[in-house]
User: Fold these one by one.
Assistant:
Number 1:
Amino acid sequence: MGRPKALLPFQGETFLDGLIDKLSRHCDPVIVVLGHRPEEVRGGVRSAAQFVINADYARGMLTSLQCGLRAVPPDCARVVFTLVDHPNPNAATLAAIIQAPDAPVVIPRFAGRKGHPVRLSREVAGQLLDLPPDAKPTDVLYRHLAATRFLDLDDPGVVDDIDDPQAYEELLERAGSL
């Protein structure tokens, strides 16, 4: 993208500020894992959250997930996580994910496609923490596939994945932000 995705403007705020705001209505604490250019990203965020730095971010997404999971208070029974390049889940979607009946994993879907945010039980979070850094989160998630709760929602925001300028432009057009 040429700049940190976390700081891309969207609907009057940055991707990261929007996600912090949406998640903080349901989650406490909201933990943000910073990797590449952490000072720049932290300096561009207005919202209150707990920030942790993943010095090993170049090793892959699992190290960031593990960094965030290590910061979760021990009394949290469930964890909700998302990626910053999935900036557009709606409020009803977040509520549905958080309020879904107990399951080891809760994953939203739109038109049959899996998306974010994802909710994990404390047990699954612990199994992810036990993975070596070269593993993939799916190594754990597939173990729980039979008990995973998929929520079929009318929210294309769960599958928005803003990885390039074209996807960003399309997001802005759909949201009426251009």
Number 2:
Amino acid sequence: MTDTTYDKFLPEGIPAWQMPFWESLRDRQAKVQRCDRCGSYRFIPKERCPKCLAAEASWAPISGNGRIYTYTVVHRAPTPAYQAEVPYVIVHVTMEEGIRMASMIRGIEPSEVHIDLPVRLTYEDATPEWTLFYFERAG
């Protein structure tokens, strides 16, 4: 969907050093920080590696595959813009690279969502400036 009247939540106040993640979503290949010293992936972007405290990091593509770690079913929309989607499910996913990411899962009934369900990233152009990520059932 590309619509300049998008009325749901969008990122705001993102520091410039975190923008490579958001830019990678537009390319449909999510990239996260990877520590140049110890090799661990990190998400949400941080100024220092939480494992070895190194400041040096590169932006590395991730597979986009993971498994649901936990989830919650939302029955009351936070704003009127989300009302048509309730009930929807927010999932926390352990990605193959070991990081955890959270977003909605789409294309699946809430009753079918379960811990350890294989999922993959999918992308949606919310506005011309912002591409967001969601999850869908893998396979």
Number 3:
Amino acid sequence: MMTSLIIRLGRSARTSLTADRVSYARVGALVVTLLALPQVLRAQTPAGTPITMISVLSFVGSNGLTYTAADTLTLTVGQVGGVDVIPQRSVVTDPSTTVTFTHTIGNIGNGTDGISVTATSRAGWTTRVYLDADKSGTLTAGDALITSPVSLPMATTAGMTVKR
């Protein structure tokens, strides 16, 4: 059994105004749902993946004979970087208050990337960023101060804690 989806973009005769509005609402909800998906869920083609296309041309010449020509083209996917920080946060606080934020950084590119992570204070206060090794959201003995880029493979995440 074959099922098909028909989406009408123009106006057409309808027997019911409600039916017309429902069909447009369904399409609108589908579009909103697709656009609202987080970037990490969208599929990427890994960097270095070869994509091969074979073209074949057959034709009949003026002499009545059939001729065939073929060619192969191979393209290699290049690397595209991308990173996401979830959630983005900020706070206004007194100078004597210690503030700790936990975040997740995600590699939304199509290959392994080194991601440099820094934090700044508008007031010039010292901030430190730690790799949250166990993703606990608190500073523990295994959490190391980030001093160099964090290496993340494609579609993976790492926890980090920012402390001021």
Number 4:
Amino acid sequence: MKSDSIAFGVAGIAFGLIAGWIIGTQQAKPAQPTQQVAASQPSSSAPSSNTRAAIVDDAKVNALKSVAEKEPNNAKPRIELGNLYFDAERYDDAITWYEQAVKLQPKDANLSTDLGVCYYYTNQPDKALERFEASLQVDPKHVKTLLNLGIVRAFGKQDLAGATKAWEQVIAIDPNGPEGQAAKRALETLKSAHGGNEPKPGA
């Protein structure tokens, strides 16, 4: 077994708090904590939550769907629908609307990252990473994307070296912000799991 895989197992529980930092940027708040990335939703290990998901307002959903149907080139109602479903932890439904919105607004890093977060929570880490990379093509210093990129690399792919690189970028860009502080805690956990040494590429 690779040393990274061993360290990943050791760090898994402590990382639960850090994993809670995976963020839907439109919501501007942390999504629910998850202990394991490899099985996020709704498969073998759905994310644990200490708070209840928001309840979808059917009247608002129907009104937004009506606007979306009448205005096929309007991203706004699609983004709002995605946000409503995201808050309700109905990630498959959120994906449907975010994907439509991304086609209309491909240069929106926030929107792109929201979609990536939904992929992550539906056990699609590769698609999440692709979406985060697309976000970074738009804004290479988008700290919420970089923080999420590190979380998915660590949890979804067990790529601790890749996670370390992403989190170091977050710290370099925004060392004192909430994302920078979360990245620092994540790196400290990795360092502790490796006996005082951060993981290196190819380790």
